[in-house]
Specification:
It contains nine helices and no strands. The chain is 78% helix and 0% strand. The termini are far apart. The chain is mostly helical. The relative contact order is 0.11. It has helices at residues 2-26, 33-39, 44-50, 54-77, 83-101, 109-117, 119-139, 146-163, 172-191. Helix 1 packs across helix 4 (54-77) and helix 8 (146-163) packs antiparallel against helix 9 (172-191).
């Protein structure tokens, strides 16, 4: 029985990794269950035994990516230091995770897929980021109040310029713009309460 569970787990993992590669290289639209099955030398029916639909498979890939992104963001914020260093580390962690996923820009459409098909998971992901910004603000002296949460949401919205998959850019001038915006946000956080 244990061997069968292990084989099932290995097959499921291989399917997920192949789907992840297909999305990374071509976006959600590039994910084809029949091509995936063919590349793994199995039937598409076998894929469906492990994932009931292409949407379920896409959601599984997205969940993995979002978990890795949350972990990277936690590590970035936990670095301590000045407010600007922590905000910058948060933005850069998000961008680094996005760059890892996007061989082509359409690969980031997986996040829009989650918004559309798994709104609770998308909301939890957004709330996690909001919680990190609140933590940074509270460490800078903001009280634990609803007003702090509202202000943190404004900070998060300002950061979205650099972290939204719709406008993600790896252009060289983006680094300077990120530092400018982080400077403004840091001033706001450090002098706001």
């Amino acid at each position: 029985m244990a061997r069968r569970q292990n084989d099932t787990s290995l097959t499921r993992s291989a399917i997920q990794k192949t789907a992840e590669r297909m999305i990374t290289e071509g976006g959600v639209r590039a994910l084809s269950v029949s091509r995936l099955a063919q590349s793994l030398d199995m039937t598409h029916g076998n894929v469906y035994r492990h994932f009931p639909s292409k949407a379920a498979l896409t959601a599984e890939v997205a969940a993995g990516w979002m978990q890795e992104m949350r972990e990277a963001c936690e590590t970035a914020v936990a670095c301590g230091g000045a407010t600007d260093d922590r905000l910058l580390a948060l933005v850069l962690a998000i961008r680094e995770q996005m760059a890892l996923r996007a061989s082509v820009p359409d690969a980031l459409s997986v996040f829009h897929f989650v918004l559309e098909h798994k709104p609770k998971e998308a909301l939890a992901h957004h709330q996690h980021r909001l919680g990190l910004v609140v933590r940074i603000m509270m460490d800078a002296g903001w009280p634990d109040t609803e007003d702090t949460n509202v202000k943190a949401l404004a900070v998060l919205d300002a950061m979205r310029t650099f972290t939204d998959p719709n406008v993600f850019s790896t252009a060289a001038e983006t680094a300077d713009r990120i530092k400018e915006v982080v400077g403004v946000l840091t001033h706001y956080i450090d002098h706001g309460p």
